[in-house]
Design a protein that fits this description.
7% strand, mainly alpha, 4 helices
């Protein structure tokens, strides 16, 4: 169980420069989307797109206040995953975690969570901006790109992490 897994100090699991840049850029996009919403808030009509189907067509409209739910949910998920990143010994793994592979496995899992939390923050920002653009009548938006972005943005980091962990297990003989 998780209790028997080795605990590695966070300093040894430090983020790479690439991971720091991705985190910075995702937070910049998130803050930029909030600034955008603040700038256009007075021009947004009372009814805004609130749900899209698989084709990207609007299937439900809601109050303009629903636009605030998106960044709130994105931020809550981001902060929850940020906290979870700090406890990689508690994550679920498709391999057995041993003293010899723990540090590398924890880095892989922490990195995957980092990519997921940043992707989710950007996706929620993107959905909010897309709904705002449509509500303002500035165009049809790009809602049809959201679903592929969700699948690629969340699926790819998971697949990459699983492949790395399996390779680690095969190399380690566990």
């Amino acid at each position: 169980m998780n209790a028997k897994r080795p605990k590695i100090p966070l300093e040894k699991l430090e983020k790479s420069t690439f991971e720091r840049v991705i985190s910075f850029l995702s937070m910049l996009i998130f803050l930029g989307s909030l600034a955008f919403l603040a700038l256009v808030w007075g021009d947004i009509p009372d009814r805004v797109p609130a749900h899209f189907n698989f084709s990207g067509e609007v299937t439900r409209h809601g109050s303009q206040w629903e636009l605030l739910i998106l960044p709130i949910i994105g931020l809550v998920i981001y902060l929850s995953m940020h906290l979870l990143e700090k406890y990689p010994h508690m994550h679920n793994y498709p391999i057995e975690i041993t003293e010899s592979n723990a540090e590398e496995a924890y880095k892989i899992s922490r990195s995957m969570l980092g990519m997921l939390k940043n992707t989710i923050l950007v996706i929620f920002s993107f959905i909010m901006i897309n709904a705002s653009v449509i509500a303002l009548g500035w165009g049809d938006g790009v809602a049809s790109l959201i679903l592929p972005l969700v699948f690629l943005g969340t699926g790819l980091p998971i697949i990459i992490a699983i492949v790395k962990l399996v390779k680690l297990s095969l190399r380690d003989g566990t």
